[in-house]
Automatic annotation (TrEMBL):
Gene3D superfamilies: YycH protein, domain 2. Residues 3-418 form the Regulatory protein YycH domain. The lineage of its organism: Bacteria, Bacillati, Bacillota, Bacilli, Bacillales. It comes from Paenibacillus terreus. This is YycH family regulatory protein. Pfam families: YycH.
């Protein structure tokens, strides 16, 4: 009997030791992460907020067509934009009919018919749109990437049409069943009647008919430290070594991974070389993995939008564009800020780039300026385009680092057909704006 008691006590001690060892190695769920292999990362602190992929996908603008060649534009975060988008997300779309892009005169339809056009510059895979809208899966349509959704009422005012335009530029899909009535669309379009008028130019882009009054804020900023990024990105930061480059940048490496920091630009580039794979990367899986990677290694310092998802020979490139209120923040070579960029391979981040600067959220100061519109803007475009065709124009913020934080300077960003671009600046506000947001 005594021997059995001894054996039971010994077994209990061994079991208790094993349980204690388990919790020491893995910890309780939610109490933090402990490394279990060299391919894991330490999440030491919450540097930014976490986001789901649904939070990162939204139209960069909403164009309202009111018939008789009357139009207006709503930007993200504005009242009517948010209201219309929330209503459309609750509507169902199904039974898709494929059509050639040449099957209709789309410019004429824009001019004559009432409707709502959602622009997703850079494109969004249909499998991700299904997370935002009630889109019934369809084998052919599901393989597409969409850059425009356009819902309009026919000339007779008796039927709505819901169109999804492919980024390939040659096909459009019509949802032959959509629970949007003519009255629904007309009500949404009516929100644009009292809004600043825009003019469609050459069927390609829209400009306000009057000057547009916008804010030029100075936003308080902070700086992620190199030590923070090292702790987030390396298996054991204590074994990294520092290499000084001739251009003033610094490289931190553990012989496998490397973190390059360009001090003047406060920009970091992290690389984790992955072995080549014969398997084709799944772009959507890569994107989802990229979102989770950022959640764990730096987080999101404000609002971001999926701006680009493109295929590489070995994986997927993903670019997230930062927004401040209604406008994107322009990433310029002279001052890298406003984007988070990743290269994903088989759902693993091989390249991760972002600014070490971040917006804290409060404003030090702000004043109003006027972005030119109408004939004034047209003259500027003709002068600066130098004969090149214009593909798109949109309001953006150019970041400028100053003592008080980051000044966000509003400009028109103009993209040309040949791939070039330029900006048109604002002037100080005086009097009442001819167009607003």
């Amino acid at each position: 009997m005594k021997e059995r008691l001894k054996s039971a006590a010994l077994a209990a001690l061994v079991l208790g030791s094993l349980v204690q060892s388990y919790f020491l190695i893995y910890r309780l769920p939610g109490s933090g992460t402990v490394l279990t292999s060299e391919t894991s990362y330490v999440q030491t602190e919450n540097m930014g907020q976490e986001e789901s992929v649904e939070d990162l996908i939204f139209p960069d603008r909403m164009i309202i067509h009111m018939g008789e060649n009357k139009h207006t534009v709503f930007y993200p975060g504005t009242t009517f934009y948010d209201l219309i988008l929330s209503r459309l997300e609750g509507r169902a779309f199904e039974n898709y009919q494929r059509r050639s892009i040449q099957s209709a005169d789309w410019n004429a339809i824009r001019q004559q018919n009432k409707g709502i056009e959602l622009s997703f510059s850079g494109g969004v895979p249909v499998t991700l749109l299904e997370r935002l809208m009630r889109i019934t899966p369809d084998p052919v349509f599901r393989a597409e990437t969409i850059n425009r959704i356009w819902i309009y009422i026919d000339k007779q005012g008796s039927k709505t049409h819901a169109l999804f335009f492919s980024t390939r530029g040659d096909v459009v899909y019509e949802a032959t069943q959509a629970d949007l009535t003519v009255e629904d669309v007309a009500q949404h379009v009516a929100f644009g009647i009292s809004s600043p008028p825009y003019e469609m130019v050459e069927g390609d882009y829209y400009i306000p008919q009057g000057d547009m009054e916008v804010e030029q804020p100075v936003v308080l900023s902070g700086l992620f430290t190199i030590e923070q990024m090292q702790r987030n990105l390396f298996f054991d930061p204590s074994i990294t070594r520092n290499i000084q480059e001739k251009d003033g940048s610094e490289i931190y490496t553990d012989s496998k991974r490397s973190l390059q920091v360009k001090q003047e630009q406060r920009w970091m580039s992290y690389t984790d070389p992955a072995a080549p794979s014969s398997e084709q990367s799944d772009a959507v899986r890569d994107l989802l993995a990229g979102v989770e990677f950022v959640n764990q290694h730096g987080g999101w310092d404000g609002r971001y939008r999926l701006a680009l998802q493109s295929s590489l020979d070995y994986g997927t490139k993903v670019v997230f564009q930062q927004y401040y209120k209604s406008f994107p923040v322009l990433d310029k070579p002279a001052f890298r800020f406003g984007t988070i960029q990743l290269e994903m391979q088989q759902e693993t981040a091989s390249v991760y780039e972002r600014s070490l600067l971040y917006l804290k959220g409060g404003e030090h100061s702000s004043h109003k300026v006027m972005l030119p519109g109408g004939e004034k803007l047209k003259q500027q475009l003709v002068k600066q385009a130098e004969g090149q065709a214009i593909r798109d124009i949109s309001p953006v913020y150019v970041p400028k680092l100053i003592d008080q934080g980051i000044e966000l300077v509003p400009v028109w960003r103009v993209k040309l057909e040949n791939g070039g671009e330029f900006t048109v600046g604002a002037s100080p506000a005086s009097g009442t704006a001819g167009a607003g947001r």
